[in-house]
Amino acid sequence: MTRYLLRRLLVAVPTLLLITTLGFALLHAAPGGPFDADKRMLPAIQQAIEARYHLHEPLWRQYLRYLGQLAHGDLGPSFQYRGTSVNQIIAQGLPVDAAVGLSALALALLAGGGIGVTAALREGGAWDHAAMALAAVGISVPLFVLAPLLVLIFAVTLHWLPAGDWVAGSPSHLLLPALALALPYAGYIARLMRGSTLEVLNSPFIRTAQAKGLPSHHILWHHALRPALTPLVSYLGPAFAGVLTGSIVVESIFGLPGIGRFFITAALNRDYTLVMGITVLYGTLIILCNLLADLCYAWIDPRVRLA
Questions:
Q1: Can you tell me the distance from the alpha carbon of 193 to that of 236, in angstroms, rounded to the nearest whole number?
Q2: What gap in Å lies between CA 291 and CA 307, rounded to an integer?
Q3: Residue 305, exposed/middle/buried by CB under 10 A (0-12, 13-18, 19+)?
Q4: 46-85: pLDDT as tens digits
Q5: Which has the closest alpha carbon to 264: 240, 280, 281, 246?
Q6: From the CB of residue 254, how many other CB atoms can be counted at a distance below 10 Å?
Q7: Spatial CB neighbours of 263, under 8 Å, sequence gap ≥ 6
Q8: Which domains, and CATH codes, for the chain?
Q9: What is the pLDDT of residues 211-237, one digit of tens each?
Q10: What distance in Å separates the CA atoms of residue 267 and residue 286, rounded to the nearest whole number?
Q11: Cα 185 from Cα 238, distance rounded (Å)
Q12: Helix (H, G, I), strand (E, B) or coil at 216
């Protein structure tokens, strides 16, 4: 196990370096610059600003400088938000995205997992067809349609929940954006769990357990559920990283101060360091979550050997 972890970590370093290099090259290849939207400035002022942020240097020197800062955990200053570092912006927005994202993922796992397993146990029945149709709706309806509908129902019509804004530690302000973000993930999880549960229930070792006269609930919880989770673990790796970095649609509709909105505005304004910081964060989360998913395989299915 230790050798496997070291090998994966050694592979993660060049992978993250490749992500950083591609992101840096694509950003600087795009037309425009971080200060093009400002008012027309005198050449001396323009040169002074570029010298302050080292934009007057050759591109290869800027790249090496950025790698040196990144190695020390410094993501650099933001070009758009003057006097603020990228580390501060991410530290401000990531807790909001983490609270909403983890709540959404928990709701999706509970609802999608339960619906998928129940549909598999009632294969071909009315519940199976209704559950899969509901999952297809959750997957197909875009968030910019789904989120306003939830606001209209629960905030405007029923007055149960606030329509937006963010108050740290307030469950009422957390529930509606988490629910909107959870519904598409719940649809995917329901379909995954139904397919994997059906496959496991038709396996020879399940038929052997049934032939021994074991109760159905015992077979499901002690024999079928763990191997049925394997495809779900593969999906949860990138899904976990996705919900942590937030959704621009959910953040915009509910007025959440997450990093998704910062990423979009930074890309439009050529804020190189902020875009690169969020890109590096997302790449790191993807790598770590996939590593955790691989480690979970050995716990879920003893037949998997990582050595």
A1: 12
A2: 14
A3: exposed
A4: 667 666 777 778 888 989 998 999 988 888 888 888 788 8
A5: 246
A6: 26
A7: 245, 248, 274, 275, 278
A8: 90-300 (1.10.3720.10)
A9: 888 888 888 888 888 888 888 888 888
A10: 21
A11: 12
A12: helix
How far apart are alpha carbons 288 and 279 in whole angstroms?
A: 14
- Token readout for 281 is 């964060």
Contact call for residues 132 and 120 (beta carbons, < 8 A) = no
Q: If we measure between CA atoms, which residue out of 196, 190, 194, 225 comes closest to residue 209?
A: 225
Which two three-digit tokens encode residue 13? 């370093």
122, 148, 124, 119: which is closest to 134 by C-alpha?
A: 119
Q: Which SS3 state, helix, strand or coil, does residue 280 take?
A: helix
The 3-state DSSP class for residue 85 equals strand
The angle that helices 86-121 and 230-244 make with each other, rounded to 10 degrees, is: 150
Q: Which two tokens stand for residue 216?
A: 């159905």
